[in-house]
Amino acid sequence: MQSRRxxxxxxxxxxxxxxxxxxRLQLDALQQFKGRxxxxxxxxxxxxFDNTAMIIRCGxxxxxxxxxxxxxxxxxxxxxxxxxxxxVKEQLNFEARVKKEESCINTYIRELELMLPDEPxxxxxxxxxxxxxxxxxxxxxxxxRFATALANRSRGKSAVVVNDEYDVxxxxxxxxxxxxxxxxxxxxxxxxxxxxxxVDFVLKTEQIxxxxxxxxxxxxxxxxxxxxxxxxxxxxxxxxxxILVCLVYDPSHLIANPHGLRIDLTQMSNDRLSVEVxxxxxx
Length: 283
Known about the structure:
globular; two-stranded antiparallel sheet; 49% helix; 2 domains; alpha/beta; Trna Endonuclease, Chain: A, domain 1
């Protein structure tokens, strides 16, 4: 009789920097489960948990204590009376799990930050896209606030209302020009698979491309993903872009699984192109 072979031990196969970036995204995504009902968020949370476990496996390996620690976080139990109603127990357990998962990821992030090289000294020049990317992401995350503020105008003045993707591009162009000197709109991109496309905006000095999408009845999860996957493939062929920032403006909440869409697209990053995805407003 053959003995059962132990499962393969999988080593870490991601660099600390990539693992750190992905865990920060997962930590941001985890916030959406706070204050929500367990039963309505259970499926989304399960998907989030599986994706996070995969990232931890790739970043640390299956034999690392963090891999076991995170997988056991799902057994966290809330505090309640012995004869409490089952739905209350379920909710408290869910809240305890989210709290434990947040604590775990914060710990892993601190560990990874210690593994990375020290910040550049004053004599060293950091790549221009690092700080610039943070600014672009900040602008994208605040885009809905900006658009909402423009839509509320008093004294009978005409408001600025975002009706379609062209309006999104118009406002985003103005925001980018406040912070960056060289913003080039609709820069021709190379054709890919027989199709040609145009880049929404390219920050030449910072080597950042920015794509803007706005959801509508015929542009939801699948359609947005397909369009952006084509864009990602095109930008990987360009030699002048290090980062692609994708802003998906979803004011009517037509994206059914924003977390899953964000993870699927950011995982298309490679050594030639880093992909960042912002979906606003958050559900």
